[in-house]
Every structure is written in C-alpha cells, then in structure tokens.
Design goal:
alpha/beta, 25% strand, 35% helix, Rossmann fold, 2 domains, 248 residues, four-stranded antiparallel sheet
C-alpha cells in the first residue's frame, strides 16, 4: 500500500535522506526508529506529501505523491490521519471543538452527527468528561489522547504517528500505545509509528525499520530486531554508549 523508493532530500546542502526505501502492506503498522534529529519526521512529511523529495518516489496505492495535481493530492491526503509530537491541539478551542474541527472542515455531517462521532471517539480514548475544557486545563497525557481522537475521528486509511509518547511518563506512554493498538484493531488502518519507546511499541507493530545515516539499515519483525547481532541495531536497541554509533 505504501512504497518508498530511493528517497533523497537535502536542506542547505545537508543530506538528510540518502536513498530511503521500504514498503508497508495494507493494514500493517511499521515502527520507525533511529537517532533523534536524523530525518524520521522529514520522512513522515514526505509520505504525507508535505515535502517533495530531491529524488525518489512515495507511492500510495499506486499514486506517486510527487506527481499528483493539487486536487488529487488533497483527495489522497484526506485519507490520512496525523498525530503530531506534543498533540498540537488548537489552544483557543475546547477539546470537543478540536476533535470536531476536521469533521466540520472536511465533511458535510450535521452538528448532531458530528457530536455523536466526537463523543464516541473521546470515549474510546478515555477523554470523555473533558470535552468542554481547553488544552491548557488538561494534562499532557489527556492532550495526547485528545489529539489521537482528532486524528482518528474521520477513520483514516493511513495513520502517521510522530513520537506520540514524547515527554510522557512511562505509565501514560504505555496507555497511549495501548490506545493506538486498540484503535488499530478496530479501524485496520495502515500506519507508521515514529518512536523511541522500545520495546513497548514493538508489541503493536508488525515491522520495524531502523533509519541510520539517511538510509533504512534494516526492516525486520520486532522479534528479529530484538535478537539482531548487527552491532548498530544492537547498540540502538540496548541504548549502550559503547558501539559503532557515535552520539554528539
């Protein structure tokens, strides 16, 4: 369903992506891991059609994201849900209004239909009761759950999760991961999950890709990644400061 082929991207002469290639089948979640600040979010933006590559292609259901006309690109993007780092809720809107926003902007549903969908989704992510509060009035974990509800309320075919547990304590982070898993079982979306939550997120993904020095070093099952004898993979999984990967 998603095919990334030889993707290259530089910013001001700095190569960020240096020939990224991988595939994701329909209904799979791919866990994308790698060092912080080395291109994972840039890769997600290419897949969403927000950035054009210098070279290479992103194919979604046979459609080349780089070659679509604006109207066709917008139509394809409407099938996406995106959970940003830190939630990215609108501060001036209540939780209810945040989750209702994409329905009001992109559908012709009545307010009664919107209300039912929003409250059902808030209930599914354990935020029911906070719908009239503003983001500044709720916890970080609740913000992330409300953002998950907003991303999923239109029941997208494709979900992109950009480090959805960043800055959360381990208990709340595990709760968010469990919610993603339960929503995936219900909606059957195809997803990419950028994460540092190892090995917890490995329980909900079917494949893991390691982005290293601008390329995908390996794509394997979670079990294969965890048992890998590749020194780079092993060092990243264990978090050891000893090994071929040099942190600066």
């Amino acid at each position: 369903m998603i095919s990334v082929e030889d993707l290259h991207k530089s910013f001001d002469g700095l190569e960020v992506l240096r020939g990224v290639s991988f595939q994701i089948e329909k209904g799979e979640i791919l866990g994308l891991i790698g060092m912080s600040g080395y291109g994972k979010s840039v890769l997600l933006k290419h897949i969403a059609g927000l950035i054009r590559p210098d070279r290479g292609r992103v194919i979604i259901d046979g459609n080349d994201m780089c070659c679509l006309r604006h109207k066709d690109l917008q139509r394809l993007r409407s099938r996406f849900g995106f959970l940003f780092q830190n939630g990215a809720l609108f501060d001036s809107l209540t939780v209810y209004e945040n989750v209702a926003f994409p329905l009001r902007e992109k559908t012709k549903l009545s307010e009664e239909q919107i209300r039912k969908k929003v409250l059902d989704m808030l209930d599914q992510v354990d935020v029911i009761g906070a719908e009239n509060k503003y983001p500044a009035e709720i916890s970080g974990g609740m913000i992330r759950r409300a953002a998950l509800a907003r991303a999923l309320v239109r029941e997208p075919d494709i979900m992109l999760f950009d480090e959805p547990t960043t800055g959360l304590d381990p208990i709340i982070a595990h709760h968010i991961i469990n919610l993603i898993q339960s929503c995936h079982k219900r909606l059957k979306f195809t997803g990419i999950l950028v994460t540092h939550e190892i090995p917890k997120t490995f329980e909900i993904v079917q494949k893991v890709a390691l982005l290293y020095e601008g390329k995908i070093l390996t794509v394997e099952t979670p079990a294969e990644i965890l048992s890998s004898d590749d020194p780079i993979v092993h060092q990243f999984i264990t978090g050891s400061i000893e090994g071929p990967v040099q942190y600066h």
